[in-house]
Amino acid sequence: MKIQEMKIVVAVMLLLLLSSCSSQSENDRLEQIFSAEWQQRLSVNPIFRSSFETDYHATSLADISLEALTKQAAFDRSILEQLDGIDYQKLDDLAQINYRIFREQVEDSLASFDFGSYQIPFNSDSSFFSSFARISFQVPFNNQQDYQNYLKILGSWPKYVEQQIAHMKVGLKRGMTQPKELLDNTVSSVTAFITDDPQKSTFFKPFQRFPKTFTEQQTKQLIEAAKTTINESITPSYQKLAHFIENEYIPNARTSLGATDLPNGSEYYQQRVNHFTTLDLGVDEIHQLGLNEVSRIRAEMQEVIDNLEFEGSFKDFIHFLRTDPQFYAKSAEDLLKQAAWIAKRMDAKLPSLFNHLPRLPYGVQAVPASIAPTYTTGRYVSAPTGSTEPGYYWVNTHALDKRPLYVLESLTLHEAVPGHHLQISLSNELDNLPLFRQYSYISAFGEGWGLYSEWLGIEAGFYQDPYSNFGRLTYEMWRAVRLVVDTGIHAKNWTRQQARDYLSSNTALSLHNVYTEIDRYITWPGQALSYKMGEIKIKQLRQKAEQVLGENFNVRDFHDAVLSQGSVPMDVLADQIQDYIDNAAR
After folding, report:
1. How far apart are CA 545 and CA 536, in angstroms?
2. What is the maximum alpha-carbon separation in the chain?
């Protein structure tokens, strides 16, 4: 029996043993189920495990073969059986919250496996082959063994690629693929990591600097080993993947766009909708809500145009914003400096809005050049667990004429503070949550908070410039349009061009951003719904708190109540805020 199989068997036996321990409290039994699942999570993912256990050093990537995934699904089902044996009413309040979130995560993992989501291991936003390029940021480089371990991880890449190709071949047979129409740039996204000179490879970067304690002989040996590994493992595997995608995947990919055209498509899309929004809403309801929001925001945008006394139509104003040089940075450095200045101004406002601030700082950095051409306009990148790195607010400096400055305030507040950096860092500092919750990211909460943070900038004194305020509205419109477009594409037979036209005619986003965003929605069903749905819920809860508490409402306390339990589903957040209201009203 393989070591991996033995670990799974032991974990299952532990769960069975736990179920027989009637003398334990329900809280203790639940915690032990959490612990068993967490150990399983670490055992199947060496890179993830190495970030939590300082005495463990990964030497390979995870086994993602069908056999391994099937065993994981069996383990998840055993977890659900154990959860069925827990008396929910005997759990304390925090344990009940943990139970609800944990069960949803396990059920979602099983649903993802049953639908065959693993057969589509990439989208236009992210992929296994681009994520692997950041592997050097996830492992230490303190001594010679660390470098050797890194080389072993690179050496495991060919097997990992073979497993991914095997999944995609199954997907091709059953129609579980990305749409052919959106695959034009996929091959170039893979070949971007292929180079004739291994020393120019992104995987060689750790070998450009060594600890001062290394001898010249040691560095020379490691450099030669790195060149060999890149030439023999990395480059051939990327070449094989590119060849497969170009000659087998693309020609046989599905010709439709919507997720409802996938196997069990309607059920799959609804499951994705429920997962990303954490709300029990139908597709038609969300689509109509989006149409209503688009109408409301459009009226506010028109008011800004009228106040500027702009001579021309809405379309003319959008064209003006997209083409006038005054709205674009002259250099990448200029764009980064302006982003950093906005972030620093917001830093100074945080004490007036929050009682508790995170200890971890953040930096402002350009999106890596290797992924920038097809990457979103900005993103927050969390610090690796246990590292000495800060969090990073990434700003895309590729194609500067497509990165308007009038949206930079909204982008910065969303990705840095008070958005993702503040929320994620505070969550990571919570010490009363089980590990699975400390490192969970629930999209409706996280992205809802990010969009709420953009709106919060009004209270903090941002958007004084009318163009920046229009940028805020165009970002809000962007997320409202997502409700219409995502459901339109995946459930109402919208075309790619129809979706592009709808987004471009209602926002001031550059056409480059419009195209990349629409492709993201098509290739990542349901994810785009989380932003606006989460923000709407947070705003509704704040409005409720303000109405009930009146003069006793304190925005700092409200924000602390929202963030106090880390990332949670919307129904759990509603309960949290109700508790906050009840306590504040006493």
Report:
1. 14
2. 77
Cα–Cα nearest to 389, from 573, 198, 134: 134
Rg (C-alpha) for the chain, rounded Å, is 25
Which alpha helices (H) appear in 230-359, and where do they start and end? Answer: 235-244, 250-252, 265-277, 283-307, 314-323, 332-349
User: Domain locations in the chain?
Assistant: 1-115, 127-255, 269-534
Report the pLDDT value the prediction gives residue 304, as an integer from 0 to 100: 97
Distance from C-alpha of 142 to C-alpha of 149, rounded to nearest angstrom: 11
Q: How many residues does the chain have?
A: 586
The edge-to-edge listing of strands for the beta sheet with 391-395 is: 362-366, 391-395, 378-381
Angstrom distances, CA of residue 541 to CA of 41, 438, 544:
34, 23, 5
SS3 content of the chain, % helix, strand, coil (to 5): 70, 5, 30
pTM above 0.85, yes or no: yes
Alpha helix segments (H runs only) across 85-178? 93-115, 128-131, 144-155, 157-174
The Cα-based distances of 210 to 143, 321, 573 in angstroms read 9, 47, 47
State the helix-helix crossing angle for 265-277 and 443-456, rounded to 10 degrees: 50
pLDDT along the chain (586 residues), means of 10: 50 52 78 96 94 89 98 98 97 95 96 97 94 92 96 98 98 98 95 96 96 95 98 98 98 98 98 96 97 98 97 95 95 98 98 97 94 87 83 96 95 98 93 88 95 98 97 95 98 97 90 90 96 97 98 97 95 96 92
